[in-house]
Input
Amino acid sequence: MIAAVVTVAAVTGGGLAVTGLTRPGTENSTEQRTGLPAATAPIEQGDLVSSTSIDGTLGYSRESKLNAGAAGTLTWIAGGGSTVKRDGRLYAVDGRDVRLMYGTEPMYRVLRSGDKGGDVRQLKANLRALGYGSGLADDETFTPGTTNAVKRWQKAHGVAQSGQVGPEQIAFATGPVRVQGAEAAVGDRTAPGQKVMTTTSSDRVVQLRVKVSDAALAKDGGAVRVELPDGTTASGTVSSVGATATTGDDPNDKTPRIAVTVTFDDPGRVKGIDKSPATVKLGGETRRNVLSVPVGALLALDDGSFGVQVVDGGTAREVRVRLGMFAQGRVEIAGAGLRSGLRVGVPST
Output
C-alpha cells in the first residue's frame, strides 16, 4: 500500500483542509533507505478541547457618566486614568469637594434627620465603614445618631457641620471608580445634572464582538484564556453575553455579532493599556480520555482513508485510523493496536 503525507493548511470546526500530498521518502534519504520517518511523536491519551480565538479589546467594566450635583465653577477634577475609592475626591465646585460613597442608588436629594429610604441605608453603611458611625443601625431611617455621624465626617474634612448631606457633597457608585475621561475642565460652569466625567469600574475586562455562528462557544460563566498585549496569558470567565445581535460600523462587514464581556479571575495582576487588543480563546467541545496525534502525522491512503505510520522496534507500519475531533494542532484517532506511548512518524522540522 502506498501512502502520502497529508499537508494541512487549516483545521477549524472539526474540518480538515488538505493542500498537498508528498510521497514518503521523496524528500529524505533516510526514509528512502530504511522506510523509517525522520522524526516521530508519541500518541497521547487525554482530553482534547476545541477552541476558537477571537480578538477583543482590553478595557474596564461598567462605563457610566457622573453628573454635577451643584451649580458653580469647577475648581478641581480627578485626572483621567486615576482610581477613586470610598471617601475619595471626585471633583470640586467653588472649592467644595464632592466625594465618592458606595451604593447602588444615585444621590438625588439632601438627606437629613427623619428621612427614610435606600439612599439613607447606603449613607449609614458608608459612615460605619469610614469609622464615623459604628453604632448606626443597618436600616433606612436617618436618626439623630446619623446626624452626629455626618457631623463627624464633615468635621474631618473641614466643612460646615450641618449634619445633613446632599449631591453637592457626595456621589454614589457601586464601588471604586476609574476616571475614564473628563467632560468638563477646571474653570467651567456646572449645573445639577450636567455631565462632569465618564467613569468605569476599576476592574479590567475584555470586550468581544462574537459572530452569531460562534455564540454557542460564549457560555455565561464559561472559563476562557486571554492572551494579553504583553504576550502573557490570564484565566478569565465569560461574565455577560448579549441577547441581541447587531452589525458593526464597518460597511464591509455586516456579519451579525453579539457583545460578550470577559472578566479576569485575578484582575489585579492584569496589566495593559486601555483599549489595547487582547485575544480570547473560547472553549468548545471536549473529548475525554481520547488518543490523539499531531495533525502532521496523518497519512492519506490510496483508498481515500487516513492512517498513521507507527514506529516500533526499529520497524514502521501503516495503521488505518478513524478520525475524530481536530483541536490544538492535534487530531483524535482510533485504530487497531493503537495505544498511548506508541510513536508515529511526523514531518521533520
Remarks:
- The chain is about 10% helix and 45% strand.
